[in-house]
Structure formats: C-alpha cells, structure tokens
Protein 1
Amino acid sequence: MAGALSPQIRILDGGEHRLLTDIGRVDPTSLASYREHGGYAGLERAVTRLTPTDVIEEIRAAGLRGRGGSGFPTAAKWRVAREMDADRKIVVANLMAADPSALGDRALAEGNPHLVVEGLIIAAYAVGASEAIVAVRRDWPLAIERLQTAIREATDSHLGGYLVLGTDTSVQLSVWEGSGAYVAGEETALISALSGDRGMPLIRPPYPAERGLWGAPTIVQNGETLAHVAWILAHSPDAFASVGTEASRGTKLVTVMGRVGEPGLLEIPLGTPLLDLLGMAGGGTGTTKALFVGGPGGGAIDAGSLNLPYDFDDLEGAGAIIGSGSVLVTDSATCMVDTARFFIDFNAREACGKAVPCRIGTKRLVETVDRILAATPRPNDFTLLRDLSRKVSDTALCKLERLASGPILTTLDRFGDEYRAHAERGVCIAGACRTSELLPLIEPLAGVEPAARLE
Ligand SMILES: Cc1cc2nc3c(=O)[nH]c(=O)nc-3n(C[C@H](O)[C@H](O)[C@H](O)COP(=O)(O)O)c2cc1C
C-alpha cells in the first residue's frame, strides 16, 4: 500500500499500541486519511475549546515525561516558555535520532507523520510559539518527504500556518534537515546547528525554554513525545495514565535488537519488566546474558535482574537509562568487554570535542579497554577505568559525556570476570574475541573451555 516503511523498520505485536496503532492503516501521504482515523481532533479541541494554560494543565495531569531520553516533565518546560515575555518563541521537534539503531521516531515520521506535526502545533499553541521546526535526520529521505508533505497539507488546510482552524493562532511550520554525530541530537547542540553554528552543546543555564534558538524561548521536544501530546489531547490525560507506573506513565517505543528472536520496534507500557519485553521480541536466541538498555549512554542489566521494570527511575537506579529507547540483547556468546568497548568507542567518535575531558577522556577509556582486551594491561588499568569514567562524567558539559561510561561501569561491576580473564589470561570467556594479533600474548590456558580460547 501507499505508505510502506523503510525495510529496516519492523513493528512487533504485543505491548500496547497507541502511537503505532495506525501505522499501516493510515496513508502517511494523505491528510484526509489521517483525519478519517481521528487525526487533528486533539488540535481542534486544543485551539477551539482550551486555553494554552488548559493544554499545559492536561499535559501535566497526564504526567507526560520526555521520550527523548531525559524523562523531563513536558508540562514543566512548557510552563517556563509560556511565562517568558518574548515577541518570538519557537518549538522544535527533535527527530535527529542520534542513536542510529533506535527506530521509534523514524517509524512515526514515515508511518504517521501528521501525528508528530499535530503534537508540534499543539505545543506551539500551548507555549505561544509562532514558529515550529521539525528537525529531521538528513539520511532519512522517506521521513523527510512525508513530513514535508504533511506540513504542506496541514498548512494548506489551516491546521498550521496562518489562523489555525479560523482562530487567531498562527504557527509557521518548516522541516529542517540535519546531519551530524550522536551529539547533534542533544538539544543545545541542535539549537546551535539550527542557528547555523556547529552542532556543539552549550552550557546551561540559560535553558532553551528561557533563551534558545536566536535568543528566543525555545521548546525542543522529541518526536515521540509530541505524538503522545496529540494522543493525550484526543483521548484525555486519564486515558494516557491508564498504563505505566505512577512516576512513568503511558507507553514508550522501544527498539529491541541483538540476540533475540524477533528484533524490531515495540510499544510497551512503561514499567513492563525487561523479561516481558524480551518475550515480546521472541525471547533470547541463546542463553541471555545481559540487556544493554538505553543505547550508547546506557548500561548492562544482567540476566538475573530481568524482573526490573522498564521505566525512567528503575532503570536509572540500575545504572541504565531509557536513553534512545534501544535495548541490545546479548547472550553467552557475546563478550561484555568488547560490547562495552563498542559503546565507548562510539561515544568517543561521535563526541563533538568541545569539552576536553570528553574528547581526551573517552579516547583514553577506549585505549584502556583495548589493553585489557589484548591481555597487555598496565598495573593500574582497572583503577584507571573507574576513576577516569567518573571524572569524565563529573566534568560533563553535556549528557553524552555524563553518560558515556555507563556501559563500562556496569559491565565492570557485573561482568568483572570477563575483564579479568581477558586481562590476566588472554581469554574471552564468551569465545567471541578471536583477533589473530592477540595470539602471541596468550598464556597457557589451563582449565579453560576450548571454545573460550582465542583462536
Ligand atoms: C548525546 C545526546 C543525544 C541525544 N539525541 C537525541 C535525539 O536524537 N532525539 C531526541 O529527541 N533527544 C535527544 N537527546 C535529548 C535532548 O537533549 C533533549 O533532552 C530532548 O530532545 C528533549 O525532548 P523530550 O523532553 O521530549 O525528550 C539527546 C541527548 C544527548 C545527550
């Protein structure tokens, strides 16, 4: 049908489909089709029957927290921007999907773009913004095309643009194509890029809601968050909060990948135990060892802790995060040291280089893990890994840096035996690291399973 998604996006059954429910049913290239499925009812209600303050109150009552990683209460941010006395205010939909493995925002943009656009116009109305920008990754051509079509149709039909639905609200809509590294999705880096500068984070305060793009109060909101905004205005705050936990309400888009039966995109109630989430994705393909939850700044949750609820606070308490909404499943054939190395190397490469402890520190962390992997550690390398991880985090300019060492610290704590086997004996317990250059370093491997030896 018109409106197929990019082949890499596979939507899984199970969980609770709200944002995903119309994907595959609604024609993403047609406003009429979106409206037939109840689209723009939330916006209509907002601008014709509610004041901006009422809208903010509904979002507060729903308990919506940002889906872009931080879990910050959406209404609190909107209230700050609303109260700012400024001629110009701006709202930005963040669809930079800085973690390329996360599929949620892309699925929404390709499969039901009006849902995001509707949420963005509601946000603009609530905070009093006259400009609304959809910032989307340049390497998602289909998403860009469909968002552009949606914006054109919405503007032509007076759902956006001048005099929204015959009211005195006007919101100029545009799509901005962005490129760049992982850090380019961080909101102050995105604001810098939108203003024409390099996409590097800025020191806060001032917070963007007070002083953001071109000095104007700016609300940056994740694409999925905005889709929830449209859903809440159409269905009510109570309906939104009918699933989830007290502190983490509603549903969340989660991308499950790795050693799992059915990798793909789920929508689950927040608070779903990790074990159930794994089950919805077809279960582990081998003996599950750990789940890396939250993307490059996330952490490893070991298989013994899979009763942990997937929500903002429980994950953070366990050293992981919701982050990009991705979950990497590993099994007994996955090396935890090498996987942690993959993430810290990603963070080092994708950092912008503005903060020295981040630029240098993440590289030194990669080198330290490399020495351990090659069985050539220096005497204090384990202490160095922990100390440097903390220092990089404590001196952080942005959250990339603050969270960068999560995969290292959680694997060191939970899979220290794998680090020690690599460092002291040149053995990969998972039997996964088979780098031929490491061969000369290997000591006699008494008592070690043959499959676990470096080959
Ligand atoms: C390294 C890094 C990358 C980020 N990438 C994204 C991203 O791709 N999309 C996104 O919405 N938020 C991303 N964020 C979070 C944003 O800074 C910001 O918190 C978010 O856009 C606010 O929207 P929300 O409250 O709706 O989540 C990133 C943060 C960091 C530190």
Protein 2
Amino acid sequence: MTLNTLNRSCTKCRGAPSVYYRPYSGERLCAACFNDSLFERVKKTVGKYNMFEYDSRIAVGVSGGKDSLAMLRLLHELERDRPYAELVAVCVDEGVKGYRDEALSLAEKNCSELGVEMHTVGFKELFGETMDVIAARDRELGTCSYCGVLRRRALDEAAKAVDADRLATGHNLDDMAQSVLLNVLRGDAMRIDAFRPGGQSLEGFVRRVKPLCEVPERETTFYAYVNGLEFQSLPCPYSEEAMRSDVRRFLNRMEVKRPGTKFIVYQTGLKIRGRGDGGVLRRCRVCGSPARGDLCRACELSGRTE
Ligand code: SF4
Ligand SMILES: [Zn+2]
Ligand SMILES: [Zn+2]
C-alpha cells in the first residue's frame, strides 16, 4: 500500500500525483514535471546540434498534427528568452480535399493563439496540380512517395519565401529510428550517411533542423493531450500500408519488450553516419536544389528535365 502510494507520486517533485510513466527511465511524472522535462529535452537537443543562432528566423513546418503543434509550442517557449529570434509557421496545402482543410484550420488556430505569423504554400501553385489530381493518375511510385518529395520541396520554398534561415520539422524519435531501419532494409547507405538531426548548411538553401528528434512519439502525443492542444487525428485518405508501417510496428513491439530500443537505433544511425563523408550533396541541373545525382527527386518525379 505504502509502496503503491509512493509509486503514484511524481518522482521529480515528490508532491503532485504522477500522470505519466516513462518505461525507459522508470520516472513517474506529474503534468508540470512532464512539461518541464520535455522542454529541457528539446532545449538540450537544440544546443547539442547547434540548431539555431541567437537571432535565427525560424520557419516551423506546421501540419496541424500533434508533433508539429507540440514543436511550435515548445519552440515558442524556448525562443521567449531570445528576443532577437523569430518564429514563423509554414504550412503546405497538398490539395487533399477534406483532410488538409481541417488540418490547416487547426494550424491557424494554434498560430493565432501564440501570435505566430503563418504562411501557406500549395501544391497547385507550386507544381500546377493538387495531390488529389496526382493520386488519380497512373504513377511510377506510390502516392505518399510523390507527396513526400513534393512536400519537402514545398517546405523549402515556403521557408525561403518567409526569409527564414532555419526550417524546423516535427520529426520525432520514432520517425528517426524508423528512417534508420528503413534505410538499412533498403540498403540505402547514402541516406544513412545523410542522417543529420541538425541539418547541413548549403548555400542558397534553408538549413533543416529536427528539434523533436530525441522525443518519443508517445510523449509528443501526451504533451498534446495534457496541454489540451487541438490537433488533427483523421488519417489522410491516401495513407498507405507502406514498409514504414511494418517498421513502426516492429519498433513499437521492441520498445515494449526492451524500453530504450528506439533511442539505441537512433544513436546507431548517428554512429553509422559518422563513418561516411557527410553525404556531400550536388545540385540539381534543372532547379539547383540539393541532389544526389544529376536531377533532384522533385524534378525527376514531376518530369522536369530543363
Ligand atoms: S499520407 Fe501520404 S499522401 Fe497523405 S499527406 Fe501524408 S504523404 Fe501525403
Ligand atoms: Zn512533479
Ligand atoms: Zn530539381
């Protein structure tokens, strides 16, 4: 009885009742200590990878999902102590009727609550067609492969349009660990080599950073829940049962059996990367974007050759 009562109080402040259990560290946290610990984790990650300058103009990729909205809140709190830094939210409208409209209105609501300016770019204006049109066509690759490549380009364009010097994306620890395993399973050594949570500086391009890269997805979800964030939970109608889903399920099972697995896989990605030359990028012959070959993936997929 006594032990149970002790177990239920927060292991950090020892006063408030705990609401979250962290299997990989054994901590039981109250809501306030949970929020503090997540904030400290992000702050430490940002410092470790030198993600921002004291006066960075940071474009925050916001989709309306829990990860990006949690990131927006945490960065907003972090940048409060840096009067010269600025945040601006950048959103991509892929043109998926019903799905993206709801996400964008949730993004807008969160941005206006925080007083963060929001800038949206659309597939239609950038690439001439919406994802609904692309999805209805015969294609060489799956819908999400197209969407992922074009979305990445759209975020780059949006970050440039708002004159940002950093682009923060909401990839969490689960996303990072999945990417390491996926690249191993695909035998894609080049991509492992480019595994950089702090991004790479390349002239003419906004450096990408991933401030949530060491926060498990379960914790971004709990953060959204405990802080009452309204986020989109409907899945995209085109989401596919791709290889990533198999890897996600496998990692989730392993994490339950052996807490800390995702972090180990992530750390392994960093170690493997350290052995390469940093995945030196070339420039696309058509648009000048970073590319591993003659053309970037966005030009390849949209058939642009000149
Ligand atoms: S699920 Fe696929 S198609 Fe839908 S928004 Fe995500 S990447 Fe795009
Ligand atoms: Zn506490
Ligand atoms: Zn290109």
